[in-house]
Input
Amino acid sequence: MLRVLARLRTIALIAAASALAYAAPTETTLHPKIVDQPPFQVEGIAASTNNAKEAGPDAIIGKQWQRFLSGDLLDKIPNRVDQSIIAVYTDYTSDANGEYTVILGAKVKPGPNPTIPDGMVVKTVPAGRYAIFTSERGPAAKVVPEMWRQIWSYFQSPQNGPRAYQSDFEIYDRRASDPNNAQVDIYVGLK
Output
């Protein structure tokens, strides 16, 4: 139970610090791997937010992580493909300044009539080209926001092309099982 609580606090800090990453880009040289990602379904809890809200006292993402972890919601998702937690950013109304939906959950096996637990949604993440950025290894509350700061800086340069603002996602797999020594892949959709 203590390990779960420690992970909960760390993930909540990640979410809070990630919002700050939007406002403070840093100079960096990144070399993301570009992949053609097939579509997949994710099931989990959803909330609508924007970056301005996430940078202030009305932040939602940290509370969403707390709800997800404290309620053991990962274990309540049927037909998971693995034990990874996935955070999907989707349904962007415009760009980094607009509203978007955050879904915390897991990849699930596709099916015609999925079983959806109460309070959860199923969303298809579309196929597309994605840039994969891998964080450094370290405390998740530090390395994930730092990776987002670098991503924002990376996309400020026209030579790196535009973002699609359709779907982006973070994968918290076995490399993130220890929140004090985590490594996370962040997939950013490209036009």
In short: Residues 2-190 form a domain with the Multidrug-efflux Transporter 1 Regulator Bmrr; Chain A fold (CATH 3.20.80.10). The first strand starts at residue 33 and ends at 37.
